[in-house]
Specification:
By secondary structure, the protein is an alpha/beta fold. Helix content is 41%, strand content 25%. It has a domain at 8-140 and 164-196 and 244-255: Vaccinia Virus protein VP39 (Rossmann fold). Strands 1, 2, 3, 4, 5, 6, 7 and 8 form an eight-stranded mixed beta sheet that branches.
Length: 258
């Protein structure tokens, strides 16, 4: 699984759009009272809590200890587990066939062991269970990422290799079908996303490529930011704000009946 260190306070303030855009996905899930639902990659737990508010019995999992700690602090009555959904073995609390629905927002592009993740999610669903997910799709943040990579190469002489997983529908849908999840609907769409403040682009890099930025000296980081901003200003800065070139995959599926 791709790794990142998380500042959960900044995640909830400067990058609150992650939760905001996920609210539409909760509507698509249409959780029902009493349903057992698994939120894969729950983050700080805000969408998990929204699902629980309708009476669903929801469990939140995330591979990040920082995220789970924040979710547990904010919503202590809900069950939280630190789990990598692509692990070779899941904990006993996640029994096969124990969930009526799986929900995941803005997470699965971090999971580069996609086959293992889909295998596990399919196993956790009951036959007829719903699968409702959204994550970064093909060419997601292509310009934002290329700007940073080019800037790092110019300043440091080194070009990192990113570990995100941005598939097309044509790649991901067959993977689901192989593991018994029948795809009912799939969308690939652009979602230009406003980044708050004059340092919006820098803050995005600090949050989502934290490891790369912290590997630099403060002087190198400033030079990388300035170089990336200069490269991207004409494409991604308008109306006084930075905009990230998000591109999303949204999939609704059902686990095949046995």
């Amino acid at each position: 699984m791709a790794t990142n260190q998380w500042n959960t306070a900044l995640y909830d303030t400067r990058h609150a759009f992650v939760t905001k855009y996920g609210e539409d996905l909760v509507g698509l899930l249409a959780p029902q009272s009493g349903e057992r639902i698994l939120d894969v990659g729950c983050g700080t737990g805000h969408l998990t809590s929204q699902i629980a508010n309708v009476g669903a019995v929801v469990t939140g999992i995330d591979s990040s200890a920082e995220m789970i700690d924040a979710a547990r602090a904010a919503y202590p009555s809900l069950p939280w587990l630190q789990v990598d959904i692509s692990a070779d073995r899941l904990p006993a609390e996640l029994a096969p066939g124990s969930f009526e629905a799986i929900f995941s927002n803005a997470v699965l592009h971090w999971v580069n062991r996609a086959e293992e993740a889909v295998r596990n999610m399919a196993a956790l669903l009951k036959p007829g269970g719903r699968f409702v997910v959204e994550f970064g799709g093909k060419d997601n943040i292509r310009r934002v990422l290329t700007g940073l990579l080019d800037a790092m190469a110019a300043v440091t002489g080194q070009r990192p290799v990113h570990d995100w997983y941005y598939p097309s529908i044509g790649e991901y849908a067959p993977l689901l079908e192989r593991h018994g999840i029948e795809v009912q609907a799939a969308w690939l769409f652009d979602r230009p996303t406003k980044l708050e403040g004059e340092e919006g682009l820098r803050n995005w890099y600090r949050m989502f490529r934290r490891g790369w930025i912290e590997s630099l000296s403060p002087e190198q980081a400033d030079a990388v930011f300035a170089s990336a901003e200069a490269r991207l200003h004409g494409e991604l800065h308008r109306d006084g704000a930075w905009w990230a070139d998000y591109r999303r995959i949204r999939i609704v599926g059902v686990k095949a009946m046995a």
